Amino acid sequence: MAITAEMVKALREATGAAVLDCKKALEQYQGDEEKAKAYLAEKGLVAAKKKTERQARDGKVETYSHAGGRVGVMVEVNCETDFVAKTDKFQEFAHELALHIAFADPVYVDLSNIPEEVLEAKKQEFYQDAKAQDKPENVIERIVEGRLEKYYAEVCLLQQPFVKDEDVKVGDLVMQKIAELQENIVISRFARFELGGATEDGGGEE
User: Fold this and answer.
1) What pLDDT shows up at residue 81?
2) Quick one: three-class SS letters along the chain?
3) Number of neighbours of residue 136 by Cβ within 10 angstroms
4) Contact present, 22 and 40 (Cβ < 8 Å)
5) Residues 56 and 181: beta-carbon distance below 8 Å
6) Burial track 108-132 (b if 16+ CB lie within 10 A, e otherwise)
7) What sign does the CA torsion over 150, 156, 159, 165 have?
């Protein structure tokens, strides 16, 4: 099948991928735009994973206030350059993260931010609960792992389902933005304030 310039242009506008990559993807899948999109998305995520090792020292501190000022959020989102930090896509992403934090109420940025003593206490709690049900040891291990995964999804920002699309985790969204913006993106820390409640700080990198 002949690949036209219009087909390449349409795929480039839909994915943001380079012209040559779009042309190759369309040629590989005989002009099937959906398969070409899936291929480019997968390729972009592979490249994005390599970028996560790069330093991200620019970015912005986004703020969000909800429910007439009863809930407020501050989140530091980092990227590599001032150029990307000022783009509409990065600004919008930072805002979406602040909105998510306001609604989902995470406690930590990621698993690595959970204090060891807190994590160990949770493991013991889940273990004792399963043991009290007279479950075999191998079954207990699976129960504990399952409950830990559920716990992570409740308290860790990157493991939480995104409030606007629960089929996608926040961590997956970060990887998608890295692929899209071609820079490493890091959620360093956040704080959520609720009127009459304690301040919750998400910690993270300094």
Assistant:
1) 95
2) CCCCHHHHHHHHHHHCCCHHHHHHHHHHCCCCHHHHHHHHHHHHHHHHHHHCCCCCCEEEEEEEEECCCCEEEEEEEEECCHHHHCCHHHHHHHHHHHHHHHHHCCCECCHHHCCHHHHHHHHHHHHHHHHCCCCCHHHHHHHHHHHHHHHHHHHEHHHCEECCEEEEEHHHHHHHHHHHHCCCCEEEEEEEEECCCCCEECCCCC
3) 9
4) yes
5) no
6) bbbeebbeeeeeeebeeebeeebee
7) positive
Separation of alpha carbons 16 and 42, rounded Å: 13
Euclidean distance between CA atoms 46 and 179, whole angstroms: 8
Q: Which domains does the chain have, with CATH numbers?
A: 5-51 (1.10.8.10), 58-110+156-201 (3.30.479.20), 115-154 (1.10.286)
118-131 mean pLDDT: 93
pLDDT 10s digits, 57-108: 899 999 999 878 899 999 999 999 999 999 999 999 999 999 999 999 999 9
Q: What is the pLDDT of residue 54?
A: 82
CB burial string 168-182: b at 16+ within 10 A, e below? ebbbebbbbbbbbbe
